[in-house]
Amino acid sequence: MKSFITAAALLAATVSADLCQEGVVDTNGNFYCQKVNAITYTGVGHDGSYNKITSMDPTTGACSSAPYGYSGSLSPLDEEVSIHLRGPLLLKQFAVYMPHNSSTSPPPASKARRHVHDKRHGHAHAHMHRERNAKEEKRALGDVVSALIDGKWQTWANNYNGGAAAAAAPAAETGAPAAAPAGPAAAIEPVNKAPNPAPAPSQAPGANRVGGGSSSSSSSASGEKSDPADATGNWARQAYYNSEAAIAEGLVFLNHKGGDGSGTWDMTYGNSLSYASKDGTAGASSPQILADTTLASSTEIVIMTDQPCTDGSCGYTRPDTVAHHGFDGPSKAFFFEFGMPDDGQGGASEYDAVNMPAIWMLNAQIPLTLQYGDAECSCWTSGCGEFDVFEVLAAGDTRCKSTLHGNVAGGDSDYFERPTSGTIKAALLLFDDNIHIKILDDSTEFGPNMGATFLTEMAADTMEDSVEKLVSLFKLGG
After folding, report:
1. What element of type H or E holds 236?
2. Between β-strands 332-339 and 90-99, what pairing exists: parallel, antiparallel or unpaired?
3. d(CA 373, CA 377)
4. CA dist., res. 309 & res. 212, Å (int)
5. pLDDT given for residue 349 in this prediction
6. Which of the chain's ends, N or C, has fewer CB atoms near its CB within 10 Å?
7. Residue 283 and residue 264: Cα distance in Å, rounded?
8. What does the pLDDT look like over 242-269, one tens digit per residue?
């Protein structure tokens, strides 16, 4: 993935003590400092705008867009997001958790799309970027909440005080090490001016640092971006996948094979999204459960909710594409059990995604319009948001980097070890304007509820640079 940094981010950069003082390796412009077990990005949310796609003409190739303003905790990644996997990768389990009273699909929201991400997923990663500016707004008792109940949107006053579950039956807490709680909602309104970030050179390390199935069934319950103001309640599982048990609840597996069974293809935009075949290599006419197998090198799978976009509920989407809602809200957690085996292949260039597995998150507008293609037909270029969770940047490399892309951008130079043998468990937690990534104990269970204590401790344990704990902290702006 090509990394771009705004000039403002460079000017705001400060160098402070961090794990890079223990040593740095520069590999083809990618800086690698220390192997860690956890990375936290602080100050993610900010005020800004991006260009939301409003039309696509397959005859002329012309795309229209309109400025769209955002603000608040974790914005714009508080909007609906999609999860992407690139092989060689074996996904054994995947789970999505949100605070009770949260949901993966709000009433008619808007969607757009993303950047020309090179076919390898795009970036070349000249690491280190950053910036930010955050605002948040808590949803209090008595506020109006919308929820999808028995297929109908209903509205009531929020009487949830952060205690027991509101929309799901109580269950024992699950988890093992530690993690964090719920966060606020943000008001997003149109603005009259869109930013025009310019590409900038990479920063030196240390900058911006502080220290065989069929369709699936839904498991989500309520509607609006409404989270408890505190962290006393468990987080409910909204979606779950288990490869060995052939279970897929609350989610669908898509790919870029439009025209093969589902979706569409044309000479202008190429393949749209489609339902993915069981091995991920082809399209399908209906949702399939991903098989218990390793995704082939370069094969990409997109995970979204099982709730289709209807009547403009996702905003503008490419005509005739397969369109589903993404995972919504300013507080959400994604749990993975996965492996990234080395298939022994070598890429012809840095843009050839052979033997370079990755897990990343996009603003869901990106795949719903045009993930690969003309930058004018994507909100990625104007900053609608991407976060790379585990990305291998060179064929056969054993290091996984993380990076935030958008109008505020940054990439930590510490890295995770690629799980080439067997599998590991890991969590991606978006909460309280921070993004936490942590390798979990193998005994961690992805049960129906995730204990708030587990999540709170996970956040607390990853908020300080630590050589002893193998924790890296990356500060975005300040």
Report:
1. strand 235-242
2. antiparallel
3. 7
4. 25
5. 72
6. C
7. 10
8. 999 999 999 999 999 999 999 999 999 9
Structural domains in the chain (count): 1
Residue 378 lies in a domain: yes
pLDDT level of residue 83 (50, 70, 90 thresholds)? very high
DSSP-assigned letter for residue 121: S
The range of the structural domain enclosing residue 377 comes to: 7-137+161-462
Distance in angstroms (rounded) separating the CA atoms of residues 167 and 260: 38
Q: Rounded CA gap, 430 and 458, in Å?
A: 11
| pLDDT of the residue at 188 | 27
Tell me, yes or no, whether 151 lies in a domain: no
Radius of gyration of the chain, Cα coordinates, nearest whole angstrom? 20
How would you class 348 by CB atoms within 10 Å of its CB: exposed for 0-12, middle for 13-18, buried for 19 or more?
Answer: exposed
Out of 52-56, 171-175, 465-469, least confident range: 171-175
Decide: residue 28, CB within 10 A, 0-12 exposed, 13-18 middle, 19+ buried. Answer: exposed
Enumerate residues 6+ apart whose C-beta is below 8 A from 169.
none
Q: Is residue 471 part of a domain?
A: no
Question: Which of these, 445, 463, 336, 460, lies nearest to 400 by C-alpha position?
Answer: 336
In a domain, 470, yes or no: no
Residue 465 has pLDDT above 80, yes or no: yes
How far, in Å, CA of 25 to CA of 21, rounded?
11
Strand-pair partners of 271: 265
Tell me which residue of 60, 61, 63 sits closest to 377, measured CA to CA.
63
476 sits in the region (left: phi over 0; alpha: psi -120 to 50; else beta) called beta
Its sign, for the CA torsion 172, 147, 262, 60, is: negative
Strands 25-27 and 30-32 come out as antiparallel
> Distance between CA 358 and CA 410 in Å, rounded?
17
Contact 413, 31 (CB under 8 A): yes
Nearest one of 364, 330, 303, 360 to 94, comparing CA atoms? 303
Structure confidence at residue 319 (pLDDT): 96
Structure tokens at 84: 């992407």
Average pLDDT over residues 40-55: 97
Q: Which residues contact 160 (CB under 8 A, 6 or more apart)?
A: 100, 101, 141, 145, 166, 228, 233
Contacts of residue 384, Cβ cutoff 8 Å, sequence gap at least 6: 50, 52, 76, 79, 112, 113, 114, 363, 365, 366, 406
Looking up tokens 């008619």 gives 108
